[in-house]
Amino acid sequence: MTLDRLAASPQADRERAERILAAARELLTAWGYKRVTVDEIARRARIGKGTVYLHWKTKQALFAELLRRDLHKALGDVAADVGQDPSAALPGRLVREVFLRQAGDPVIRAVHAGDSEILGALAVSPNGVPVIQELGFHALLARLVEVWRAHGLVAVTAPAADQIYTIDAVLTGFITGGIAVPGEGLRPDHRADLLSHTIKAALETSAEPDEASLRAAARDVLAALIAARDALVA
Amino acid sequence: MTLDRLAASPQADRERAERILAAARELLTAWGYKRVTVDEIARRARIGKGTVYLHWKTKQALFAELLRRDLHKALGDVAADVGQDPSAALPGRLVREVFLRQAGDPVIRAVHAGDSEILGALAVSPNGVPVIQELGFHALLARLVEVWRAHGLVAVTAPAADQIYTIDAVLTGFITGGIAVPGEGLRPDHRADLLSHTIKAALETSAEPDEASLRAAARDVLAALIAARDALVA
DNA sequence: TGGATGACCAAATTTCGAAATTGGTCATCC
DNA sequence: GGATGACCAATTTCGAAATTTGGTCATCCA
After folding, report:
1. B155-170: per-residue pLDDT in tens?
2. Is there a contact between A171 and B165 if contact means CB atoms under 8 Å apart?
3. CB contact at 8 A, B91 and B154
4. For chain A, what is the mean pLDDT?
5. Which residues contact A119 (CB under 8 A, 6 or more apart)?
6. Smallest CA–CA distance from B138 into chain A, residue
7. Residue A180 pLDDT grade (very low, low, confident, very high; cuts 50, 70, 90)
8. For strand C, which nucleotides have at least one atom less than 7 Å from a protein CB?
9. DSSP character at residue B177
10. Which residues of A touch B165 (CB under 8 A)?
11. pTM of structure
């Protein structure tokens, strides 16, 4: 998404873009989209303001790439987990990983929570569609459910649409946190365990999956994650 | 919570208070707390503005009673269900009922969702505590989990605090709805079914409860609901 | 000579005092 | 003596002036 235009050297050019993105990320989590000025980003990256516009056409485009970068990394990390251990492809386990990524990254959390305070103009795309949809999260979730069903990891007696909705609602509930329970007495990884257990109980088949089908499912889940990750670059 | 003060007749006085509350409820759901003026309420109730202040000391006090009234009725309704059918006391069933009440009542929904757009100054009490906590929702939930555990309807292997948190998060997730899934393609009662199934799977013991303990649990659940309801009046 | 820059501009946002509105009171009136 | 609406202080809204900011481009070196 960087503008095509020659620089001193492709090497230096890329490194400069990284410096700009790093400055933008810092400011975004600290101040939120609206309060961050391009001037301030340039100052932190120790370049002129005009130089920012040699890399991105608009402020929005810059932050959109920032979002894609973070999400790209998160999806890659989750995919790596699945590659390491096939059982990480199970619904409960996978949702657990997603939860922990957002707990550890303010930007990703903002996306999942639809936090317009931080996301500002990025919260909804020009078409009025929430970024998280724009970013293909729903398509990925639908694909994952499809894979899980195909490999018998979740019950096929219930409609896939219901399972998608359930996962989305439960994940959102754990991310935003409940209303009634005061304070955050629970550690993120413990909350992740509760979420994992809930998803597992609500969706996974009671029978333990055999090694072979789990391994096959993991391969498809991995492919879906990588496909979703790579789709971000397009 | 009405001010103690003599009126033409206790009968007429009470009826007038009801007219005021009805007008306030209409306006609250249509415009939200902040945009509703006491003047407009009085106009709709066809009385002078000063008369409103013969019933409540402040605008906040008026709406606080409105909230309590709606919640009082909802808790009574749920209690009635449990009285009718003991199996309505099961976690999944009970949460289902709560979900349907909030789906059907804009004021209750606003309370559960923490909708400060509608609740305005009511969203948080003067102490900065969310209304829903102030209204004892957490205490009720804790008590219900305690009862369910005592009667073997939910597993006692997991800590009660975890179960309370889980119910709260899941319920909140279903009320606010997920982020990724576009549109509301699902009917409220169908969403209620999915919620019910999720809670049941995540918390209830696998063994079907015997008639006797279910009946005993229902009695305690009923008592807890009534106690929570009556606590609103204090 | 072309990549980097910051002065510059139109548009959006913030400021802040004036004007209007509103929660709450109370002298007045049936 | 219960009900009322004119009235008041305090808050909110309005709006125009002042400031800020996203984005451009003539200028400047390396």
Report:
1. 999 999 999 999 999 9
2. no
3. yes
4. 91
5. A32, A33, A110, A111, A131
6. A180
7. confident
8. 2-7, 14, 21-27
9. -
10. 178, 181, 186, 191, 194
11. 0.92
Contact in structure between A96 and A200 (CB atoms under 8 Å): no
Buried b (16+ CB within 10 A) or exposed e, A55-78: bbeebeebbbbbbbbbbbebbeeb
**Residue A1: pLDDT above 50?**
no
Torsion of CA A58, A64, A65, A67, to 10 degrees: 150
Distance of alpha carbon A92 from alpha carbon A90, whole angstroms? 6
**The predicted structure's pLDDT at residue B183:** 60
B173: which chain A residues are within 8 Å (Cβ-Cβ)?
169-174, 176
Give the model confidence (pLDDT) of B181-206 as tens digits. 766 789 999 999 999 999 999 999 98
Determine whether A125 is exposed, middle or buried from the number of CB atoms within 10 Å of its CB (0-12, 13-18, 19+).
middle
Put residue A136 in one of left, alpha, beta given phi > 0 → left and psi -120 to 50 → alpha: left
The nucleotide minimizing the C1' distance to residue B53's CA is: C24
pLDDT at B7 over 80: no
B194 and A169 within 8 Å at the Cβ level: the answer is yes
Q: Which among B114, B110, B224 is positioned nearest to A179, based on CA atoms?
A: B114
Bases of chain D below 7 A from a protein C-beta are: 1-6, 13, 20-26
Please name the residue of chain A whose CA is at the shortest distance from the CA of residue B136.
Answer: A180
Lookup: nucleotide whose C1' is closest to A40 CA: D21
Q: Test A165 with B114 for CB contact under 8 angstroms.
A: no
Q: Is B154 helix (H, G, I), strand (E, B) or coil?
A: strand
Model confidence at A126, pLDDT cuts 50, 70, 90, reads low
Question: Greater confidence, A181 or B63?
Answer: B63
Q: Which nucleotide is nearest to B39 (CA to C1')?
A: C22
